[in-house]
Amino acid sequence: MRHSNGIRRAALATTAVTAAAMAVTGILPGTAMAASTTTTSTPPPACPASALQVSAWQAAHRPVGTGTGAAVVQFTNVSQKTCVLKGYPTVTGAGNTPLKVTPTGKAATVTVRPQGKAWVKLTFVQVQGEGDGYCVSGKTPAAYPTMVIGLPHSGKHQVALKDGWWAHCDNKVTATPVSTVKPS
Fold it and tell me: Which residues form the DUF4232 domain (predicted)?
């Protein structure tokens, strides 16, 4: 009997300690434990057009031939607040000529801190030949001093290449999603 009394006392002591712990944590005996509520921070908003400075240059790795071939477009957050970019760009030539964008790669939300950068790479159907050039398709090549590059929820930005004109064939462009990995 002594042995069972010791077990009873230990069980009572354990119950008392458990009840005290439950009282401290706000869980009362006989009540269900509520799921924990974790406070999550609100994600940063999309970068507004006014927060972005956009520049572009010819890509180091571009298709063989003349013309632009491929370009890197850089978005710099010039605001004092962190914001996000996501998706594929829209591309429009001077004179409001939209290009058909073929997306490549998987889009993800990119967080851009103040002075942070994100990029997209645009690859065009290459203009061939010298001088005025030609398109393999037989269509007339197009060349623009500027293009309007847009990102979902982040506005449109008119941008010139730092090192040439935008040139392409067939009003087509392949675009990577916005990324924090700088393409070459």
Answer: 47-178
Nearest to 122 by CA among 141, 108, 96, 103: 103
Helix (H) or strand (E) holding 159: strand 156-160
Neighbours of 83 (CB within 10 A): 22
Mean pLDDT per block of 10 residues along the chain (184 residues) reads: 46 42 42 45 93 96 73 98 98 91 96 98 88 88 94 96 92 95 93
Classify residue 30 as left (phi > 0), alpha (psi -120 to 50) or beta. Answer: left
Q: CB under 8 Å to 83, separation ≥6 — which residues?
A: 44, 45, 46, 47, 48, 51, 77, 111, 112
Predicted TM-score of the model (pTM): 0.76
- CA dihedral sign, ordered 98, 99, 103, 104: negative
